[in-house]
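Thread: Newbie trying to understand structure tokens

Hi all, I'm a second-year student working on a class project, and my supervisor (Dr. K.) asked me to get a predicted structure for one chain before our next meeting. I've only ever worked with sequences, so writing a 3D structure as a token string is new to me. If someone could post the tokens and maybe explain what I'm looking at, I'd be very grateful. Here's the chain:
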Amino acid sequence: MEKLAPSLRSWNLYGRDADLNRVVHMLQPGSPALVTITGRGGVGKTALAHEVMRTLGQREPSTLVALEGVTESDLVLSEVATALGVQVEPGEPLDDAVSVVLRHGSHLLVLDNFEHLLPAAHALADLFRGCDALRILVTSQAPLQLEDERVVTLSPLRVPDDAATMSVEELSRQPAVAAYCQRAAAVDRRFALTNSNAQAVVELCRRLEGLPLAIELAAARAAALPASEILRRVGSGKGLGVLHRERRDAPERHRGLTEAIAWTYRLLSADEQGALRRLAATVGTVDVDTAIALLHPEGGDAAEARALDELAALVDFHLVNPVPNTDPPRFSLPESIRSFARAELVDLGESDEVEQLRLRVRAAQSRAVATGTESGVEQRLLLRVEADRDDLLNALRSAISMDRADDAIDIARGLGDLWDLRGYGPLQEGLLDRAIALGERSATDISRLANAMLWSGYLGLRHSSAADRDELIARIRRAEEMARDAGDDAALFHAQCVWLLVSPVTGDFDRAGRAAELGLHLADTHRNEGWRAVMQVWAGMLAGLLGDADRAVQLGIDALSNARRSGDRETVLSAAVLLGAFPDLVPDEGSGIPSTQEALELSRELGLKYYEAVLVVRMVERSVRLQDREAAVRWLSEALDTAVLLVGSPLVGFSLLTTAGAAQLCGHDDRAAFFYGTMRDDFGMLHRFLSESQRARHQAMIDALRVTLGAEQFEVRAAAGAELDRGEAVNEAIRYVAQLREPVLDLAGPATGHRLQPIDRLTDRQLEVLRLLAAGMSNKDIAAELGVRVKTVMHHTTAIYRELGVRGRGEAAALAFRLQLVD
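---
Reply by user tm_fold:
Sure, no problem. This is what the structure looks like when written as tokens:
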């Protein structure tokens, strides 16, 4: 068994070398400086300040002023005078007496725990400006907001995101893990980090948010409870109670995590405390507009200003954290703080009131998203819905349980577009059905209910729902009648879109044709060019499915023109995707029709992942047709990266189908048959979404494989592929392409004498991840930067390590620097 003794370094300074060097550099003797170390309670500000004093105190006088027990701001200067041994003459102003001592010669003055005395900051500023060589170091949970102040924000200790790929020795050098090990060994000399407990220790440190105080409190129980047991109790919701330990040499607020948070909470105004409680009612991160709506729902400029002030105060005290690189800005609450604030909600009897407010806010936002989706406007706010997904799902469950029918239906409709993209399974279907049933019982607004029923029918039919197909068709028909009876032409237009979009599944192309005619009539009646462009796109896709390629192209060109006139860039993209299915019939580039590459760039600019995935698959197909093996494999790698995010979408099947095409191009007919087998059961369904020429190309590939392999061997290989589920099939395709890239990328070697660098094996997205990794960003930060999930980043990093032949983050970063990918 691999076993490692913990390091003997002081536990509360692990991972702080850069912070220590930065503060020491700021406070070098010779020039005045006022530096504030900030960070949430328990993050280690005092420990760092003491280490700075030890480092600089050897060169010059230094004085520590402990302010924890000081209760009045007016007493701060008195504490400074006492610590300096200043003798104040009768009638002499205190600030003058202190300045006399500090005015001449270099001196480092450290004021610890200033956050509850912030009104005294102006006196500190006066003292600083009156002394030419004075350097002041302050620790405070919030900045002092002084002109001369330089702020150093202390973050929690880093917890490795990719711990599963690291050895015990590597893990022991990670700051949060090292801190836990050192403190655990201090209370139990038998403790050691081993293969058997390493992952539990890492996960515990992650659950404790890398906060040194929380880690110390957890490690203090190591003699009685292993990390796995503490983790279980923290995960069961008992975390704050478990994290408590009596210590006679620790201030009261550091004897438990609850006490530490409560200390900070009591520093807030009543309005700021209320703001924290309201934000804590959400799940996950929250954007700035949602935060404003929750804090001051009355609206108006004055209310918005108050909300922003309260939000800024919570950020200053590190109770709420800005999420890096988000637009619009988003904020997160550490789970320990969220748990504390929710307990306050219950104690104050505010839970129901705040929950109803959250549901009203989320329902209003969802109505805006649904309206945008149904009218075909450019921005459907899909990225925002995805970022809010966890809170929206939680709100939907809550609205159903509280019998709030209108809110439940609105939130479900707002999630519809996301479910269409990210997958619609039994969980989502059950929630939507419950919302509709609640709406029917509650006699909710007919238009609202009709639109929800249309989404239900569309999603169920398009995503192979377990529900009865005839029942779903009847639901769409009933919703259409409800919209007509209510005189709601927007909902009626939505119904025609649904009939067109489900026609590949229902096979009712006559009904789809009538829907196209009615949809165009509604667009003309309302003189709505946006509606007309949308309907032309869907009618064009219907024409393509029916083999009328000329009509499909003409409708696509008309839709493109109308969408450009109405400024609807999303429908411009939809039209470009339609036209891209008929490359032989589309006019030359001079016609202004976007190329596949231009459409791909637009999809990325708009953040529309579904269209991006379609177009990347098109790039694979194009490369296969052109017999360009290198391009085919490169684009296929990117397509499969996207497929990981879209397991519930038909696009996964297309990605696997193009994997078969690329394998055939590379001469691997047995692998081509295998990957065809992974989606053979869905082959007929996938063909419903393709044009006649696309279907013919795919069928020709299958026929050729049967000939080259022989019918019997083809069936054996296809049957082996059919044994995999979607997720397993995508992972197998990713592994295959990783093996394929080496020979493909080295094709130029013998002919040119140039062998491509290992870095050239990476996709564009992997290169982007590598650059951010080498810049020192964690997987969580990279995920926020790229707008993907942490698991997706972990998938990319694992692929990067494999492609580059390195053992981990450090070696990958070093290679990136050597190849000048990072300055």
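A couple of things are worth pointing out once you decode it. The two ends are 41 Å apart (CA to CA). The CA atoms of residues 399 and 596 lie 43 Å apart. Feel free to ask follow-ups in this thread.
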